[in-house]
Design brief:
CATH architecture of the largest domain: Orthogonal Bundle
Number of strands: 11
Radius of gyration: 28 Å
Number of domains: 3
CATH class of the largest domain: Mainly Alpha
Shape: elongated
Strand order of the largest sheet: 1-2-3-4
CATH topology of the largest domain: Arc Repressor Mutant, subunit A
Number of helices: 5
Distance between the termini: 70 Å
Largest sheet: 4 strands, antiparallel
Strand content: 25-35%
Order of helices and strands: EEEEEEEEHHHEEHHE
Helix content: 10-25%
Length: 217
């Protein structure tokens, strides 16, 4: 078989349109155009008249494909289905979407419908560029963790050696922002260690460097 012998031939819904030069040089992969419009790379051994691969995978997801054409999800508008990803029975369609910023992006159908993906990434980039917006976003996130930006944050009560009382929600931040209380010089290297010592003291019910440390869920 020559490298070009299958070019132009059709196998099921797949039409061979060329050689994929970006794959393993020890084997031959062919670029195939599916009747659904998707282009995929297929090992030449999987293309033969009797059996073999017959589509890009679009036929295997069947009823799981919903027609989202023209529907809007946040900043994204679904333009066309361009194929599928995953393995049965968890295959999902992939949609080419136009973002309100003008960019195109491919998004899994599940992520669109669930609201997981609502932009091409431009909104996230803008939030990271703006510290205030970033913090506001973290406070709304259910994946932030048990810190001051989460509604389930721990509450700490600290009493200093001279009797001052502090009510805080993040022990690490308190230690970092009040390094002079603990004689810390290298904030990056010593903050976490001091926080761990104080956390252990709270857990075991003893003082840490004269501080009374209480953790209240």
């Amino acid at each position: 078989m020559t490298k070009t012998s299958k070019i132009g031939k059709k196998y099921g819904m797949l039409t061979v349109i060329g050689i994929d030069e970006n794959t393993d040089k020890n084997d031959l992969y062919l670029l195939c155009k599916c009747d659904c419009g998707n282009t995929i790379s297929v090992n030449h051994k999987n293309l033969h008249p009797n059996g073999g691969q017959k589509s890009c995978g679009c036929t295997r997801i069947g009823k799981k494909i919903r027609d989202l054409t023209g529907m809007r999800f946040g900043e994204l508008t679904a333009v066309e289905c361009v194929g599928s990803v995953g393995k049965n029975p968890n295959k999902t369609a992939v949609w080419r979407c136009l973002c309100s910023c003008g960019n195109f992006v491919n998004v899994w159908q599940n992520n669109l419908v669930s609201g997981h993906t609502i932009s091409c990434g431009c909104k996230k980039a803008a939030a990271h560029a703006d510290a205030t917006a970033r913090v506001a976003g973290l406070k709304k996130s259910g994946k932030t963790g048990r810190f001051e930006t989460n509604m389930h944050a721990k509450k700490w009560t600290l009493i200093s050696p001279d009797g001052k009382v502090y009510h805080i929600k993040n022990l690490t931040n308190f230690v970092r922002e009040n390094a002079e209380f603990f004689g810390i010089r290298n904030i990056d290297a010593e903050t976490k260690r001091q926080m761990k010592r104080m956390s252990d003291a709270a857990h075991r019910g003893y003082k840490c460097d004269g501080w009374i440390v209480k953790c209240e869920e």
